[in-house]
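User: Structure with BES, tokens only please.
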Amino acid sequence: MIIKAVKKQVLAQSLECVAVGVFEKTTQLMSSTEAVNTLFGGQISAIQKKKVFKGKSKETFVLSAGEKSPEWGLVFGLGDKDNLDVDTLRHAAAEVIKQAERLRCKKIVMIFDDFSEVAPEMAGQALAEGLEMGAYCFDHYRTQNQEDKHAVQEVVLVFESASFSKFEHGVSRGCVVGNAVNLARDLANMAPNDLTPQIFVDFAKGLFDKKSGVAIEIIDSKKAHALGMNAFLGVAQGSIEPPYMLVLKYLPQKGKKALGLIGKGVTFDTGGISIKPSAKMSEMKGDMSGAAAVLATMSAVAKLKPAQNVVAVMALTENMCSGNAQRPGDVVSAMNGKTIEIINTDAEGRLVLADALCYALTLNVKEMVDIATLTGACSVALGDVAAAILGNDETLINSFLAISEITGEKLWPLPLFDEYKEYMKSEVADLANASENRLGGTCYGAKFLEEFVNDVPWVHLDVASMMHYSTASGYRVKGMSGVGVLNLVAYCCGWK
Ligand code: BES
Ligand code: ZN
Ligand code: ZN
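Assistant:
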């Protein structure tokens, strides 16, 4: 799909589909909307008057074609004018593209006035992100009904304003970010037999050529063994698929410290010997969503080229049950020498992340963020509305909270009280990976990870709650969500 920004567009009958926005609680139309209203014989004023269309966020309405109008007219809601935010624009763009797909349109023209409420660059970016994310559909395995595939080929965003070039810049940025989210969704939606750690690594190799500025380092099980990554290897030993620590380095500034991104990449989580129930176990193909978000973020970083150094570590393995699988009661030692008693083999995320975090500490990082589908308890706490954020540094937590306000990828803080240390005491080792006490599971998981970050400012994003959506709305589509990419890209690029 091509997304273009243009400064001027003549309204004519020859256009296939024209889309315009309407604010809630006001009958006054933007000048661009007024022109479309005239073209469609006053239908927009009519639906407003009859309150058939209120202009709420995510609301759309299809106008009927008149004698001199384009074939299709789409009206989308922009919510309250005084509180217009970027997420409303993102959702609006997504709803428009979904509606246009249903109408089988090839080309859409979306028209905007200058939004004094939102900076033009942010507006352009949010619209392009919403279009890309809203158009997403995972059809990799479909062999039937191919005629249902994407109809929309081109979207033209008209922005008649003196700050057009800023808007245009935002649009190109938004296309990169939206595509990165869709890449993370694709990786998580892929069947687990088609997305093993090996295939993930091979895919990453194909993503970054010399020009990308991203260097790849692959730690196989032999090297992991030499580095003492036995917490990671203990999880991997039950699978016949070889595990990898995948390391990416984007270092535009020689000698400067880097931001560290660490992702949980369990390509399938059976639970191991502490096996999971069968219901919904197939969703555990998404247990590599953290690593997918990190890889997708790096793909965007390679295109957007921020000045900031960024390094990434993804712990890729399956968690299987077999004659060679790790047992409850086993003791393993992580790369920093701490010993861990395995109480529950299904608490494998913290084990693979322990070694990934230790390794990241060797990469000259100034701060780190890990992202993981770590605990089911996260969904109990937050539903599918927000992900949990925990960490050892108030400033870093606050900057992520500020980022999430703009990206719409909601984060909510949970505590890292020292009392949670009680939960992870082992009778035989330094730490236990789980306890019989299931309460406060998300806090426990994060407290465990804190043992592996030394004094480096660090935040942990538990995205288990947002991994998968069972209903679609706006740019959220059914299936794997690609959660984390918007926040991580904004973090790496310093967008606030
Ligand atoms: N991958 C799961 C967590 C999860 C659950 C992610 C649902 C996405 C959706 C994780 O490895 C796990 O099984 N955690 C256990 C930890 C427990 C044994 C301490 C859990 O949450 O039950
Ligand atoms: Zn698990
Ligand atoms: Zn898991």
